[in-house]
Fold:
Amino acid sequence: MAEIRLERVTKKFGDFVAVNNVSLTVKDQEFVVLLGPSGCGKTTLLRAIAGLGMADEGRVLIGGRDVTYLPPRERNIAMVFQSYAIFPHMKVYDNIAFGLKMHKFDRETIEKRVLEAASMLHIEDMLDRYPGQMSGGQRQRVAVARAIAMKSQVLLMDEPLSNLDALLRLEMRAELKRLLADIGATTIYVTHDQIEALSMGDRIAVMKDGEIQQFDDPTIIYDRPANRFVGGFIGNPPMNFIEGQVEQTDGRLSVRIGGFRIAPDPAMQARLRPYHGRSVLVGIRAENMEALNHPADDALRVRVLVIEPLGAQNLLTVKIGDDIIKVSTHPSFIVAPNEDIWLRFPVDKIRWFDSDTEIAIRPEM
Amino acid sequence: MNANASHLEAPPEMSPEVRALHRRMLWRRRLSRGFTYFVGILLAVWILAPIYFIFSMAFTTPETVRSYPKGVLPFIPFSLETMRFFLSSYGIVPGIVNSVVVAVITLVLSTIISAPAGYAVSRYLFKGRNAFRLSILAVRAFPILILAIPLAVMFINLNIYDNVFSLALMHTALALPLTVLVMSSVFASVPYELEEAAMVFGCTRAQAFVRVVVPLVLPGVAAAAIFTFVMSWNEVFAATILTVRNRTLPAQVFFTLNSSSEPYQFAGAFAMVVPALIFIFLIRRYLFNMWGQVSK
Amino acid sequence: MNEDSTPSNSLGRRRRRDWTPYLLILPTVLYLLLFFAWPMFRGLGLAIWNPEALLALRAEATQDSAIAGKLPQGAEVEILERQGNLIPPEEQEEAANLLTEIWFKIKSQDAEGREVIGWVPDRRIRVREKDEEERPLAGTVRPKLGAKADPLTSVYAEPNERSEVVGRLESRVRVDIVEQAVLEVWFLVRGQNKAGETVQGWAQSRYIQVFGDEESGRVDRGNAGQLTAEYIQKMTQDRFFKPALYATLILTLLIIPVQLVLAIVMALVVQARLKGNTIFLYIFAIPLAISDLAAGIIWYAIFTQHGFLNSILQGLGFIDAPITYLSVDTRYWIFIAIWLAEVWRATSLVMIIVVSGLQAISEEVLEAAEVFGASLWERVRYIILPLLRPSLQVALILRTIFALQLFAVVVALSGGDVVTTLANETFRQYSLLRNPHVAASYASFILLLSVGIAFLYLRTIRTQQELEQS
Structure:
């Protein structure tokens, strides 16, 4: 059992609060991704777990043991670093064996584990080489092999793929996911790449300004962002946000965008009632709107500004009132800049946000 | 934040063991920091104490210099008498003048000669670039004193022996390898893109160099020049071999070492140390450019 | 190690043969050739080449005639004949210290009343009149003494006793001196060369020391060089050679390990990310710019009998009377003082090299070692020291070579003869004993030691690099 529990962890650098009162529980064998823009404190949090830079406040528990004040080597963890941190003066074999040697494993065990880890990462032919003679991708494999050879129950990864080129990253992503599923260690994986996070994590913790914004399954993070930041950070293009006025006609609430009214589904009616007469944020993803090139009753007329063909889809930039939003359409949808189109908003795809707090307004379950 | 809510229980009480661990860790950290400071201060005292000693000897009365036992901490009376006595001794003022003249000629010569080479090494890929760099490094490692004797013989034959200019020629040869290395790293620190940008906006290569590169490298070049100055100022062996009547300050102090009084020697040592102190202060940012590079 | 010194890829396109870089490095290359490579070569030459070992004898009494044979310096010779060669007026100044003859061109009348114009050696004329610049204007022919002597004086067409006789003058005849010429004297000599063969030929008088009988002499110096071991022998047989060599080696061995350890400690303090670590760096770097002479005097101020060490010890009550440290009887104290002064002065250089080596070690690599279980000592042992190895080796080479040149510190602390070093002997041979050849031998010896040691170090470095590149 290696559950990782963070309790009210705070880490400051001078006056700057890098991690602010974060609590987080990662279940045994779970793969959790810490996602956020640079400077959000995700790496600081990971380092606090690793013991590189101890938490100023709060506690870190690994497998029920309080490790807050233990040095890294007593925490029984393995880690993959952003720059790989391969020892340049050691051969690949000695690099992979390093942790095992430091933990005084016997020679046979070390050899067995090194070979095992190397073959899992397909670098068994390179054990005699020095890192200086290897490509970035190969060094990355060495770094991962060094970590998994430890067979520790906790594996920490700090942006392990960020130094690879795009193609290699794609390949390595899938391979890492399979590998990590096989070894079954509790893994915390730090990245700023939302695609990596969505595709790999069992759960994603989105961070901003030292705080966790949302901690959930990838599909929920994508589909039901907890706040405007998460919606805007996840997804490419990010979620669109349009300012709308909550109004009441005939006892039913509707939200007016420009001259167009959207009727929220019944579950939302009650939740939106307090916003009567105020504005809310309407959030919708680009792929969830339906574009028509003819007028329709339930469609809003908008002006197309830019068309970006992306192959599988066309991305349109359109203007609604003062808001600029992105709409993705099938390539067969023909339109020219400065023409008008009509947009249909499926009500079940709309997410509602408080326009002041920017926190999601969710239907009562 | 909503997500966090589920974990927001009261923080569990720290067990006594964990608290003890915390205390021990804080102690260990304080101890190791204190130990590092202790070692650092000890080493700083080891470096500074002798300099303080010589300073206190140079700025006191000759009687105090000869007295025994000497007070150590600020118990030594301050006086300019020793220094005045030293400066009025035979050959000292001309020696200082000679030293400055040699050092200035050396720094001008070595800057003029090494700047283009440094630029070439940092900006051009050419056949033999590495060979050039390596031989410069090798030259730097050669024992310099072997140069003095043949150069002296050569200068006698050419009738330019015992001449500040010929000593400066030798000092330039000593300084050149290092100044070339410093120059190349100083030029390398100015991105070539800046020069290209200047050329795109209508400068010729030469104009780009003068308007964009020169202002940016000036501090580094100045540091190299200061270094050259101090190297020449400090050089003893070649100065004693190559000069007879036109002695530099170190050569003058050196030749009178066995026949001079202690106040004279101590004041002389301090006079030689002063530029060093100024030097370290002025070029502190470039220390690694100068010596760090050798590890390549 | 230093990436900023490699040009960026954008420079790749300047591959087309462009002479600019060569022009730019030309001054440096020329300067170093002229004032570094050439003197170094000459220095080695001075040590093993005696430029005056042999005297080349000429078939004729001219510089450009064929060489008839060579005589070694000091060989005894018979002088068979002498001849004067005209020295052009512009070279007469330089000829001042040569054995020369002066000839006058005279105008006079012989016994038959014919006008005679021609050359006579000055020894045949007594000068009677001179102009205001002391140039002879007129004189009389000297009478010849002795019964057998020819009473008439010959006048020659050229200033040369072998040329045609144009007239003969009686003694005491008045002559007008039209012109004078300076002649260099050549001797036809015969002697034995090293192989024992008898050789005969002409040599300029300056190379021959003539004995009183004017018929024999010795080769005083030569005009052709020869490889010789005499200077090196003189060096090795010098009574200061062995003490100097031993002192240099002992001091090198004492200084360098301590410097390496101390420099690593200093570097670790500087790199420990404490507040004020840059102040530590600057303080540690100060001696970098202090000359060895100043350092020597500074430590002399500490170790001299009335110096700070005794003052402090007495102040603390450890001693009652000052101890004499720097004397012939306490040579080991001189060694200790030199050792301390050098460690004090020259550790900074090593420290700077080590610090920049440490800075090149990535922070993440050290953290990785920590995460994978290495304690502080294990990190130093398995990560920091191996990664510092190239820096340490460079520092080692530089410091060893500099330590072999120990000079002013030694003179300041020992007066230069109680403890002496190879560099100090170089200086003494040149400046005090006026023997540049032996001085050059010492310098060359230091050079060879340095090159040898550097080569040893470099071989160990190369094995590491080869491993990484193979």
